[in-house]
């Protein structure tokens, strides 16, 4: 079956928009850095009021504002500027769901490396060893671990609550969250469900930050922590739920299957494995963000992880010994939710 080519009759706008998308990144990061959206939310809704609030010349504010209006981030209604609703929710500093710092951190961390994609694909890898997407070496520095984990908390606490609403954690007594990071998923689940107790396993420098969040939420009685490597020998057991929430995109399939097999060993018969991770559609037509994460997982010719389709996740779980694998979208543009069961 042939489907119509939707670009018939188009000129260069589409490829210009794709090739020059860095301009959108730059303008958005500038608006975040200068707190434009927070000032608008706080009532500075004209060019003059914004110029005063931001301490910048009105003509300059007007140019930034014009770019933001062109990107549908801000609009003008009855002579006053207002943020579009997603901007209001996620890019205004005192919003509970603010994630401007996360966008700034990730964009700045990865920006220049995106100039190297073609070179990364054509380079010949110096060794066959895969390199775990920098997680293990990067987190050896306590400051890196703090930056990464705090940004991760900010980016994912909302998703933690979404998962806790959609996934019934109260069915479980003991949950092992592997690569649990800041603990945001465990915290949200404990706040929304009675009963379940959680053990978070992650690297020592990450666990130190997780403990701060756990204490802040008064959940030390229900969430405990184990510093370590989830491929390591000493491994806690006796759980009825084990999860990997987004660490496995940093590993290639052989390692992923080995990690799943570790979770299998940690579970009691009949226990459930839950994986939340970047996921591609089975026909590999997207979504865009997982496709980009997958492409970015090749550096200097080496594979630093992989984004898998739902069907591939099911195969990996099958190989690790699990049964009844099932997958669906958790966030339709990005993350899949995959479950399976250890046979009783
Ligand atoms: C992308 S973060 C996700 C954190 C958390 N699950 C979340 O979604 O907010 C991946 C986490 O997995 C941890 N991790 C990766 N490989 C690991 C390993 N081999 N052993 C223990 N932790 C690991 C990293 O330290 C990091 O905290």
Keywords:
Rossmann fold, 344 residues, globular, alpha/beta, binds S-adenosylmethionine, 2 domains, Arc Repressor Mutant, subunit A
The Cα radius of gyration reads: 22 Å
* Ligands bound, unique: S-adenosylmethionine
Stretches where pLDDT falls below 50 for ≥5 residues? none
Assigned CATH superfamily of the largest domain: Vaccinia Virus protein VP39
CATH class of the largest domain: Alpha Beta
Polypeptide structure, described:
The chain has 344 residues and is α/β, with parallel strands linked by helices. It folds into two domains: 13-106, Winged helix-like DNA-binding domain superfamily/Winged helix DNA-binding domain (Arc Repressor Mutant, subunit A, Orthogonal Bundle); 129-341, Vaccinia Virus protein VP39 (Rossmann fold), CATH 3.40.50.150. Helix content is 44%, strand content 19%. It has 15 helices and twelve strands. The protein has helices at 13-19, 22-33, 36-41, 47-54, 58-70, 85-90, 100-110, 117-122, 135-138, 142-166, 184-192, 204-216, 253-266, 288-296, 310-319; strands spanning 74-77, 80-83, 174-178, 197-202, 223-227, 239-245, 267-280, 298-299, 302-303, 308-309, 323-331, 335-341. The strands form three sheets. Strands 3, 4, 5, 6, 7, 10, 11 and 12 form an eight-stranded mixed beta sheet that branches. A two-stranded antiparallel sheet has the order 1-2. A two-stranded antiparallel sheet has the order 8-9. Helix 4 crosses helix 5 (58-70). Residues 135, 139, 152, 156, 179-182, 184-185, 202-203, 206, 229-231, 245-247, 250 line the site of S-adenosylmethionine (SAM).
């Amino acid at each position: 079956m042939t489907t119509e080519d939707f670009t018939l009759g188009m000129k260069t706008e589409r490829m210009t928009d794709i090739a020059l998308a860095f301009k959108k990144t730059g303008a958005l990061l500038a608006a975040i850095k200068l707190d434009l959206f927070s000032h608008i939310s706080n009532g500075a809704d004209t060019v003059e009021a914004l110029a005063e609030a931001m301490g910048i010349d009105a003509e300059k504010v007007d140019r930034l504002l014009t770019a933001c209006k062109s990107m549908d981030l801000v609009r003008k209604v009855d002579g006053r500027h207002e943020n579009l609703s997603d901007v209001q929710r996620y890019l205004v500093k005192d919003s509970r769901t603010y994630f401007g710092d996360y966008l700034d951190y990730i964009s700045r961390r990865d920006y220049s490396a995106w100039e190297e994609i073609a070179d990364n694909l054509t380079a010949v890898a110096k060794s066959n060893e895969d390199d775990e997407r920098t997680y293990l070496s990067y987190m050896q520095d306590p400051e890196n671990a703090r930056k990464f984990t705090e940004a991760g908390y900010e980016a994912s606490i909302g998703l933690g609550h979404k998962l806790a609403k959609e996934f019934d954690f109260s069915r479980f007594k003991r949950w092992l969250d592997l690569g649990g990071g800041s603990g945001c998923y465990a915290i949200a689940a404990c706040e929304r469900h009675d009963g379940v107790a959680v053990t978070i396993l992650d690297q020592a420098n990450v666990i130190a930050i997780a403990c701060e969040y756990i204490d802040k939420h008064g959940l030390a009685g229900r969430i405990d922590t184990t510093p370590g490597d989830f491929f390591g020998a000493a491994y806690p057991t006796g759980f009825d739920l084990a999860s990997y929430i987004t660490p496995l995109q940093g590993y290639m399939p052989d390692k992923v299957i080995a990690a799943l097999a570790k979770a299998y060993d940690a579970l009691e018969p009949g226990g459930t494995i839950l994986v939340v991770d970047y996921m591609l559609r089975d026909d590999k037509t997207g979504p865009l963000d997982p496709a980009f994460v997958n492409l970015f997982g090749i550096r200097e010719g080496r594979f630093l992880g992989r984004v898998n389709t739902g069907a591939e996740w099911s195969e990996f779980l099958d190989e690790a010994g699990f049964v009844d694998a099932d997958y669906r979208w958790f966030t339709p543009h990005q993350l899949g939710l995959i479950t399976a069961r250890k046979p009783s």
